[in-house]
Amino acid sequence: xxxxRSLFYITFFGLFxxxxxARPEDQEYDVYLLIGQSNMAGRGTMHASDTTHxxxxxxxxxxxxxxLEARNPLNRYSSIRKDISMQQIGPGTGFSEQMYKKTGRKVxxxxxxxxxxxxxxxxxxxxxxxxxxxxCRQAMEYGELKGILWHQGCSNARTDRQEYMEMLSSLxxxxxxxxxxxxxxxxxxxxxxxxxEGAESFNKMIHSISDRIPDSSYISVRGCGPLKPESxxxxxxxxxxxxxxxxxxxxxxxxxxxxxxx
Length: 262
Fold this sequence. Notes:
alpha/beta, seven-stranded mixed sheet, 37% helix, globular
């Protein structure tokens, strides 16, 4: 009996010690970096239950570098965001729900978007770039970076297409070099709303992303409606997507990520 008890205690405390000293990366989260401007930050109408309901199998990197259950708004811990009251539903919700559903693996999101930002503000060496890298590195202590989602463009809809693609290429290359130099993670960009001035030519340019950037692709926003339909009758239509559209866009990001990850 004494031998049995001794064996029990040795086994119990041995397992306890292993669990207590387990490295964060042993938790094996799939890490995704979500950056861009307001539609990535989330402007779709958020319901009261969204702030209390956690997304199954999905986690957020907090502002303290901790892993917390994901609740909306997902851009709440962004180190560059605008006021918290502006943060609503973005594509991260539909994306992460689908990734967990299809893979069964825990998802850790690093959402670090800023409404109204231009691509020039995201280039290597800028505050937005440095913060995205810093926070993503924190998340990578808990798992492997699996992909980067980029939804930006309304602020650059009139920018020269060749110039924009050169900047996007520079941004992508620098992110990969700083975060995962030994592996090329998928990079997926989203179209901007087709009712925005200059969207047709901008989106056509985004369609060619894979010709310029290796292991990259794009998702369409066709059929995704506006947050404020009445604004479409004005000279300055609201560029933001509705809640339903944001969830749909997120699922499209997930579908594309799954295709690229095979």
